[in-house]
Amino acid sequence: AHSLSIRYFNRMFVAMLPVLILFMSTLVCFIGIMPKLRSIVWILLGGSFVISYFGRLIDLPYCAMKISPFYWFDTVPIHEINAEPVWGLLTIALVLMVIGFVGYRHRDLAQ
After folding, report:
1. Contacts 24+ apart (CB under 8 A), 94-101
2. Could you tell me the pTM of the whole model?
3. Could you tell me if 53 and 3 are in contact, meaning their C-beta atoms sit under 8 angstroms apart?
4. For the segment 50-90, what is each residue's pLDDT rounded down to a tens digit?
5. What is the rounded CA–CA span in Å between residue 12 and residue 17?
6. CA distances to 9, 22, 63 from 81, in Å
7. Which backbone phi and psi does 79 adopt, to 5 degrees?
8. Sign of CA dihedral 1, 83, 87, 50
9. Burial level of 29, CB count in 10 A (0-12/13-18/19+)?
10. What would the pLDDT profile of 31-49 be if each residue is shown by its tens digit?
11. Within 10 Å of residue 89's Cβ, how many Cβ atoms?
12. Which of 50, 61, 78, 89 is the most buried (most CB within 10 A)?
């Protein structure tokens, strides 16, 4: 039974990596473009948590629940990881990271 729980833990960890990368790249984007607003990432993270864990309790429509990146991986320990949302989140994260790096470079050169 021990190896089974490790397998589920590893699968959940791999599934949550794109979500972690998405929030980190959002922070990079805010730091690069609007550093004073970087705390908004905490609001986005908290909002995603509330939508994911309490959305069904407060009867949110599914289109509203799909806003949270955690929604796309809610069945992961039981089912396999779907590659489409992974690539979608990683693409958005890459775009945000590039925007943040470019914004930081231009902001740094302007000062």
Report:
1. 94/25, 96/22, 96/25, 96/26, 96/28, 96/29, 97/25, 97/28, 97/29, 99/29, 99/32, 99/33, 100/25, 100/28, 100/29, 100/30, 100/31, 100/32, 100/33, 101/28, 101/32
2. 0.82
3. no
4. 888 888 888 888 888 888 888 877 666 666 777 888 899 99
5. 9
6. 13, 17, 21
7. -110, 170
8. negative
9. buried
10. 999 989 889 999 999 999 8
11. 20
12. 89
Q: 69: burial class by Cβ within 10 Å (0-12, 13-18, 19+)?
A: buried
Instruction: Look at residue 24 in the predicted model and tell me its pLDDT.
Output: 95
Place of tokens 């991986």: 73
DSSP class of 30: H
3-state secondary structure of 78: coil
Place of tokens 């050169």: 109
User: 87: Cβ–Cβ under 8 A, 6 or more apart, which residues?
Assistant: none
Tokens describing residue 103: 């914004």
Q: Find out whether 30 and 38 touch, Cβ atoms under 8 Å.
A: yes
